[in-house]
Write a structure and sequence with these properties.
The protein is mostly helical and about 190 residues long. It contains nine helices and no strands.
Amino acid sequence: MHPKSPAASRVKVRLISLLGPAFVAAVAYVDPGNVAANITAGARYGYLLVWVLVLANAMAVIVQYQSAKLGTVTNTPLPHLLGRRLSKRSRLAFWGQAEIVAAATDIAEVIGGAIALHLLFGVPLVLGGVIVGIISILLLAVQNRSGQRPFELVIIALLVIVTIGFWRVSPFRRRARAASLAGSSRA
């Protein structure tokens, strides 16, 4: 297949379109709650806790990979397989644990978003929490009414905004700019 052939172009478009779910999953790592917790821990403990992040991410990769592999081989998602193999009591325990984890994660995201709005714009924390809740509901409405692809595009746009924000405040960018300005002043 020649790199400029129509078939190669279709393959590239297909591969790029498969990245949408990956960007949606990436939100879990760059949300305001996560960023605030990581920055706070980094400021307090330096690199002492980096092993926790590395281990947690490695475990997440392994679990996601194994789950995807299992789903591909059996053509059945993991929750359905667990439902078939576990007793009712065990299924309810898994369900309860998943709901508690989801609620705790959501609370952390709302609080992190409220803190971010407070730090960036001086919005009171309670109002920030309400704003984050409304935006979350609007995002879910986009997904329910328009489907997965428009939802993925909105998430990608939000990730681009976060990336630009991180880039703008990056200490590496400031050092590089200062070095280039110092170099140009010598000339």
